[in-house]
Design a protein that fits this description.
This protein is of the alpha+beta class. It is about 20% helix and about 30% strand. It contains 12 helices and 36 strands. Strands 1, 6, 7, 8, 9, 11, 12, 14, 15, 19 and 20 form an 11-stranded antiparallel β-sheet that branches. The chain has an 8-stranded parallel β-sheet with strand order 28-27-26-23-22-21-30-29. Strands 5, 10, 13, 16, 17 and 18 form a 6-stranded antiparallel β-sheet that branches. Helix 3 packs parallel to helix 4 and helix 9 runs parallel beside helix 10. The longest helix is centred in the last third of the chain and has 23 residues. It is globular, with a radius of gyration of 27 Å. The relative contact order is 0.08. GO terms for molecular function: alpha-galactosidase activity. Its EC number is 3.2.1.22. It catalyses: Hydrolysis of terminal, non-reducing alpha-D-galactose residues in alpha-D-galactosides, including galactose oligosaccharides, galactomannans and galactolipids.
Length: about 725
């Protein structure tokens, strides 16, 4: 590592540390007392030397009020604003000060650099290192902190944020999301005013059920797709989170994000350190569209497992059989999958447990042996039967959970998270296992390892997690004299240990992150999973809105979308919507009429021909369904040679539809293109003139009308350069 700057506690000359990407910069600067503050955030200056000319914003440091633009705000001394770090020292003292010591910059490659900044308390032996990992071309910053104690006695971390940012603007507009099961990702935009706005979760396991750790922040005015200053951000953590937006007395904004300190005081022994999860963000001066493409490019290359690869199509049995199946039924479904043309058959819940058979969600969870009545020949037989039919085999698991009606619960009640003196409280008739316990970690890993060891040709895993944490208590932590307040944090750490071990042995098997729908969608979990399940609500009309909102933060290759019988829309509409992600089917293929089957078979062929454009292309949201009676978005290749346009009718008022041309994006103005309609239902004709040639300039300036209306409720177009 090359040392870029050093300091001592007595330094007077300011140290300036620019954290730069291709377009943006975060400028950090020390003051006369060596406190590290943020002086600028936004568009990068062409002359880096001018960063020292930026006013130090001394008005933000009020000797009486204790308000400061700190890069990592401590608690208990000069600061009276909301802190990023709050702790109790070994002697019981709660004061903390942090001053700059040094910083390093290490270049991992031509695109990725890590700046680390060491801060220390001048009185107590506590050290904090702030890390800023920049992805230059993608304009993405990944930020976290490491807290270390050299005190003789243990200290207690009471609040330990990943990031502390400070913004100066005329106004601040926060877009955040709320929901519940089957109603995920409902956006709300609000003007932030004086005080603190908090987004948080206290759910433990299925932490995103009511609110995800993602948001966008617009500066000066609300950002649109192509205009405005906007920050898109998310916390990479699969547990409780907290994000605080504090507009101070000078109308500047302090953002603090990290693990929720709720019931999570964390003891730190001498010479131990605590690493916070990553806070990931990108900034654009050109609206939400550019910002989201920044995140997509970064995620595919650096975070999502096999993000630059491809994905298999599949047929799931859940809505066809639920818990009621046997080998004969499944064998017929294998044939249906082959007939449909998909790559994979996915066996869902209900295949395991014998003493308490998994014939409903009320029993068997935790007993991961094949149910001998349903599957007398075991999983291995199904894998081989699927292969004989010509498709691959995948399987559902929910290894973190247990039903009280199970052999596992009877044998190991001490492995279950529950208060010993309180009545048990269930969600979906189940409780979480205690992943802070290494024995439980081994058990959960063993479930998957046994499946793969005995059936090495299993080609796909669906990992579910359907309950939140009630009555948090760990018999393991109690037995080993650890603080119960470690449970929420150590549960997530335990989960990551299991996944890390699993991926070390099985690095390439595709896995879906389910969690009852969008209950666990974050970029730390997606290190280990190839895709996530956005919602158990597969009504295609609802999915248009959900997938639209998810698309700001996650690329299409990470999003699982299935054709089901939910909703009132025709099969073509349901299929067209599902093609905006990793396409799957959850239908009874044998119930399809001749035309529906013919359409579906051709749709799978069409999808396989264009899915790389959807997975790897740039996404442009063209017509917002929240503001119009139809939606339109498109994916364009980096070379601008091909694009796929999706458009859907979302309103049913008289005359609803695309009565005016849509200005396309992501094409080359100098190239000529032809437009062809995909997924035509048998017996119908396209309203598009496929022999017409258009310049890219025309399509992006005058626009193109996909002709979406009550008779053509969904339209998919392929746009290809000649």
């Amino acid at each position: 590592m090359a040392i870029i700057g050093t300091s001592s506690f007595a330094q007077n000359a300011p140290t300036i540390i620019p954290i730069e990407t291709r377009q943006n910069v975060l400028v950090l600067q020390t003051d006369k007392e060596n406190h590290l503050g943020i002086t600028y955030f936004g568009k990068k200056l062409s002359q880096a030397a001018e960063y020292k000319l930026i006013p130090s914003q001394s008005r933000q440091r009020d000797g009486n009020a204790g308000i400061y633009n700190s890069a990592y705000t401590p608690a208990g001394t000069w600061n009276v604003s909301e802190p990023a770090l709050q702790l109790t020292h070994g002697d019981g003292n709660k004061s903390l000060d942090l001053v700059y010591v040094s910083h390093n910059k290490a270049k991992e490659n031509d695109n990725v650099s890590v700046t680390s900044i060491v801060l220390k308390d001048p009185v107590y032996a506590v050290e904090v290192t702030l890390f800023y990992k920049t992805y230059f071309q993608e304009n993405v910053v990944e930020q976290w902190s490491v807290i270390k104690s050299e005190e003789k006695k243990p200290i207690t971390l009471e609040k330990y944020a990943s990031a502390n940012l400070y913004f100066i603007a005329k106004d601040y507009y926060l877009t955040h999301y709320n929901g519940t099961w089957a109603k995920e990702m409902n956006p709300e935009e609000e003007l932030l005013t004086a005080g603190i706005r908090v987004l948080d979760s206290k759910l433990g396991t299925r932490a995103n059920l009511y609110q995800p750790p993602t948001f966008s922040l617009s500066f000066d005015k609300p950002a649109t797709e192509n205009e405005g200053k906007v920050l898109l951000a998310t916390l990479a953590w699969s547990g409780n989170f907290k994000m605080e937006f504090e507009v101070d007395s000078y109308h500047n904004l302090r953002l603090i994000a990290g693990i929720n300190p709720y019931s999570s005081e964390y003891p730190l022994a001498s010479k131990q350190e605590f690493k916070t999860p990553s806070f990931i963000y990108t900034f654009s001066e050109n609206g939400k569209g550019e910002a989201s493409r920044n995140l997509h490019n970064w995620a595919r290359k650096y975070r999502i497992l096999d993000g630059e690869g491809t994905r298999m199509t599949l047929l799931n049995n859940w809505e066809a059989t639920y818990f009621d199946f046997n080998e004969a039924k499944l064998s017929e479904l294998f044939k249906d999958g082959k007939k449909l043309g998909v790559d994979l058959f996915l066996l869902d819940d209900g295949w395991f447990a014998n003493k308490y058979p998994r014939n409903s969600d009320g029993a068997g969870l935790g007993d991961w042996q094949e149910n001998v009545k349903k599957l007398p020949n075991g999983i291995g037989y199904l894998v081989k039967e699927a292969q004989k039919t010509g498709i691959k085999f995948g399987i559902w698991v929910e290894p973190e959970m247990v039903n009280p009606k199970s052999e596992l619960y009877e044998k190991h009640p001490d492995w279950v998270i529950k208060q010993p003196q309180r009545p048990e409280h269930y969600m979906r008739n189940q409780l979480p296992l205690d992943l802070s316990n290494p024995e439980v970690q081994d058990f959960v890993y063993g479930i998957l390892d046994k499946l793969f060891t005995e059936n090495p040709d299993i080609a796909y895993i669906k990992w579910d997690c359907n309950a939140t944490t009630f009555n948090p208590y760990s018999a393991y932590l109690e037995k080993n004299k650890h603080a119960q307040s470690k449970l929420f944090v150590d549960y997530v750490k335990g989960l990551y240990k299991v996944l890390e071990k699993l991926r070390a042995k099985y690095p390439k098997v595709p896995m879906m992150l389910c969690s009852g729908g969008g209950g666990r969608v974050d970029y730390e979990a997606l290190k280990y999973f190839t895709e996530f399940w956005p919602s158990d609500n597969t009504d295609p009309l609802e999915r248009i809105f959900m997938q639209w909102e998810y698309s700001y933060f996650f690329p299409s290759i990470a999003l699982s979308a299935h054709v089901t019988d939910w909703g009132k829309q025709p099969l073509k509409f349901r299929t067209d919507v599902a093609m905006m992600g990793r396409l799957g089917y959850d239908i009874v293929v044998s119930h399809l009429n001749e035309k529906d089957l013919q359409f579906s078979q051709q749709a799978v062929v069409n999808y396989n021909a264009v899915k790389d454009i959807i997975f790897q292309g740039d996404l442009f949201r063209l017509v917002d369904p929240k503001k119009n009676d139809y939606a339109a978005l498109m994916y364009a290749t980096k070379s601008k040679s091909k694009a796929i346009l999706f458009s859907y009718l979302v309103g049913n008022r008289n005359g609803a539809g695309s009565d005016t041309p849509i200005r396309l994006e992501g094409l080359d103005a100098s190239k000529n293109y032809k437009v062809r309609e995909l997924n035509l239902y048998p017996g119908t004709k396209s309203a598009i003139k496929e022999d017409q040639v258009y310049s890219g300039e025309y399509l992006m300036t005058a626009g193109f009308n996909p002709v979406v209306n009550a008779r053509r409720t969904s339209v998919v177009l392929e746009i290809e350069a000649m």
